[in-house]
Amino acid sequence: MPDDAFETTLRSLRVWDAPLPVFDPDGAPDSPLPLFRTWFVAAARAGQAEPHTPHLATVDEHGDPDVRTVMLHGADERGWHFASHATSAKGRQLAAHPNAALGFYWPVQARQVRVRGPVTPGTPEEAYEDLHARSTGALAAALVGHQSEPLPSVDALARASEAAWNRAHGEPTAHAPTWTLYFLTAREVEFFQGDTARRHIRLRYTRTPDGAWTKQLLWP
What we know:
Distance between the termini: 37 Å
Oligomer: single chain
Radius of gyration: 20 Å
Structural class: alpha+beta
Strand content: 25-35%
Largest sheet: 10 strands, antiparallel
Mean pLDDT: 95
Number of strands: 10
């Protein structure tokens, strides 16, 4: 591949060539959760691949940002739910600095949602219910454990994964003790609607100290 292939490819890419939905912020609800749920369903029905896989941003012990893709497990009055091992990198970071941000991008409709706020772990019972409401594969992956730890070889992963799958099939009530369900309670939620003329609409919800929400438009 020629050296300029990256630059040529990068400059050739375009976004939002299809017709896009119109977002009227004057009709937005008083709180962000109903709008998030509406946009989420619309993204899925529009054919957006994996709309439930946002990026999760945390900070490490040095204050440096870290980001990865996670799976959304729910969104309700308690917050936006995701899960991980408490011993993973993200689990350790959240224990030390329990604030995070989620970023959803649904390019099929040129929409983004950004959520920021404090994160709290659920109870062990909630973690158990969360894990066992999912697939056998999810249970097997959790049973492997060692998330974010150094891996000696691919063969070691294959052996551990095979053992975990066998246990998940033979012991479907098994639990991974470090599996944790987290709740991000939003302090701020921003909705972004892209526009082909670059007149993007940005609407930010901010929670007040008494728990109410305020809305504000932002320049794109």
